[in-house]
Amino acid sequence: MPLFGRPNVGRLKAKGKIEALYKALISRDDELMEEAGQALVDIGAPAVGPMLQAAHKHGYGFKHGKGDCLLSVVDVLVAIGPPAVEALVSAVDDPTSDTFVAVSALGRIGDPRGGDALLAVAKDDSAENRRARPVALGAVADLVGPRAQETLIAALDDESSIRDTVQPTAARELGKIGDERAIEPLARASMSEDTQVQAAAFASLGKIAVRLKDASSREAIRSALKRGLDGKIRMRAAAALAAMGDSQGFDVLAAILCSRDSVSTRCLAAWSLGETRTAAAAEALVRALGDELTADSVREALTKIGQPAVKPLLSVLRDGSGLKDPKSNAAAAVLVRVGTPAVGPLVRSLEDGSVQERRWAPLILSQIGDEGAVEPLVAALDDEDPGVRIAAAHALETMVPGASYYRCSRCGKGFKLSIAMDAKTTVMRCRSCGLSVCESCGEWDQVKGSTCARCGATALWEKQLTVPL
């Protein structure tokens, strides 16, 4: 870069001055960094080798400026993509290039051609390699699969100065491979004094157990729970059991969710229950719907569970105290988010559920907006409970704009003047002159003023009152 004035990025790009562009990339000028990064991406593969040599010579920084488009050194290499892989692989063993940058870019690009180079770095526990090794360990499972198994198992016993990073990374990556040979090493790792290693080991044991339906990994986790694990570690172990469908896992997660553990631990327990997508998890989650601190996490988990959560959620409406009950409101909001899978159960609740369920069902159905709910809602205009009738009328006016709903002032029965549905118009008519009439008692609809517009008979209808729910 010149001593005075701003470098001309376009001119540097045209002349192929990679080192100068690299210096601009690591400058403190956000706009200059962006321009230089884009120029290097445009040059492409020919820029990779000189960039890595410049990184080794001048250092580098991951600077976050005002915009999302600012490119760091690794970001530029990743943006170049697969064309950069060959040069990146060559740079891994080049003492004049920055190995850490090369390994980081190879891991993020994810091209299998870089797998062997990363595996070699993952095996190398020399002091010179201490920065790049954890990055390589975190990528080899995705790139070389089972061939990384022995390297990762060995890394679980790493005693170097970077063991705090190497061990949890290895434990986590073994879960991706899912080989039964990792069960015993992971069980030992679950007894580590390092909480990050414990958490990663339990998570991987759970993945292996689910994949292989392996009993030994399940027993390893159960044994660990008996040791009296605390906080997030106990939650991780229970989540692994729950993922296998083990009732002990659900029980422990449910207890954590309703405990005095930290909010983050309880939210993580809710997330773990949601990942199982089971009715048992939903039963545990609905008990925590009233906790304002974890409410968002619980609702998200129940939504993720979907259809299996509908029955437990309806039980909350049944046992609630009405439309002002916070827990019932939370359950209703989740049912709306579940959407179509909830329509059938809600319609059945509208027909034969408790009063509270029947009052809630129209409100939820109107927000879901499924056309299949229209006919059941019309039928609900004749419900014995006035609250249900009002809710049904309100829902129908929301779902079918322009439809008119009336109630006979003599018999109290609900009735639709006209409603368009599936390209058909259903109309009930006056026995005297053909205008709409109540099928229950035969009285006329109030169409204009207080008399029938056609025959002049005095009407005994009044428009259904709509009130906010």
Outline the secondary-structure elements:
Elements: H1 9-15, H2 18-25, H3 30-43, H4 48-58, H5 73-80, H6 85-92, H7 99-109, H8 115-123, H9 132-144, H10 149-155, H11 163-177, H12 183-189, H13 195-212, H14 215-226, H15 231-243, H16 247-257, H17 263-276, H18 279-286, H19 295-305, H20 310-319, H21 326-338, H22 343-352, H23 355-368, H24 374-379, H25 386-399, E1 404-408, E2 414-421, E3 424-426, E4 461-463
Helix pairs in contact: 2-3, 2-4, 3-5, 5-7, 6-7, 7-9, 8-9, 9-11, 10-11, 11-13, 12-13, 13-14, 13-15, 14-15, 15-16, 15-17, 16-17, 16-18, 17-18, 17-19, 18-19, 18-20, 19-21, 20-21, 20-23, 21-23, 22-23, 23-25
How would you describe this protein?
Helix content is 58%, strand content 4%. It is mainly alpha-helical. The longest helix has 18 residues, at 195-212. Among the domains are: 1-109, no CATH class; 306-401, Leucine-rich Repeat Variant; 404-469, no CATH class. The model is unreliable at 62-71, 415-435, 437-453 and 457-469 (pLDDT under 50). 46% of the residues are buried. It has 25 helices and 4 strands. α15 runs parallel beside α17 (263-276), α18 packs antiparallel against α19 and α23 runs parallel beside α25 (386-399).
